[in-house]
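Hey team,

Sharing the Thiopurine S-methyltransferase (TPMT) run so nobody has to redo it. Sequence (216 residues) first:
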Amino acid sequence: MSADPTGWFETLYADAARGEATVPWDRGTPNPLLVEWLANHPLEADGKRAIVVGSGFGDDAELIAARGFATTAFDIAPTAVELARKRYPESVVDYRRADLLELPTDWLQGFDLVIESITVQSLPPELHRRAAAAVASLCGVGGLVVVITAARTTEVVPDGPPWPLTADELGHYAVDGVQRAVVETVPVGAGEIRWRAEFRRPDPANDKDRTEAHWL
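Structure output:
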C-alpha cells in the first residue's frame, strides 16, 4: 500500500482547477442511482442532519440539501472543497475539508442520514474495512447510511483505483450497532454492476417494528 493512499485526490483536483485534468467521476449532476433512490424513498427531513462523504464538486450534497436536510459535506482534498463552493456559491451546504480515516470526534454518530457514493472504493482494499467502519460511525441512533459503489463479483483484485467492493466487504459497514438492511445489485451497462445498500442504526428506545417509511 502507498504511504499516502489518499494524496492523489488533491493532485487530481488541483490539476483540474488549472484545466490540466478532468475528474472522471464528475458528471455535473448528482449520482443517478442516488437520484433514483431518493425518488423511491420519501424521507422526513425536518430537523434532520445529513452528511455526504467524499463530496467532490458537491452535486450529491446539493441534492440532499434540496430535500430539506441540514447538510454537511466533506472531502479530503481542499481544492475539491474550494471548487464545490465555487460551483454552488449560494449553497446552504456546510462544505468541510476532512479525512474519512481521521474524522472529527464531534461528528461521530452525529447524523440522521449518511451518503457514501464511490468513496471507499477509491481506497486500496486493505483500507476498505477501516473506511467503511468510519462511514458507519457517522450514523446516529435511528439513522440511515446509503452506500453506492461498484461491485466486484470475481476473485481478481483490480489494479485500481477504483477497487470495487465485494459482497463480503459490504459487511464492513455493519459494525458498532449499525445493521445491514437492504442490498440491491443495479446493472449500469457494459456488464458493470453497482451495489446500492442501506444500513441502519436501530433506536433501542423504539421497540416497535420499523418499516422503511418510518426511518428518518
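Confidence is low (pLDDT under 50) at residues 209-215.

Ping me if you want the raw files.
A.
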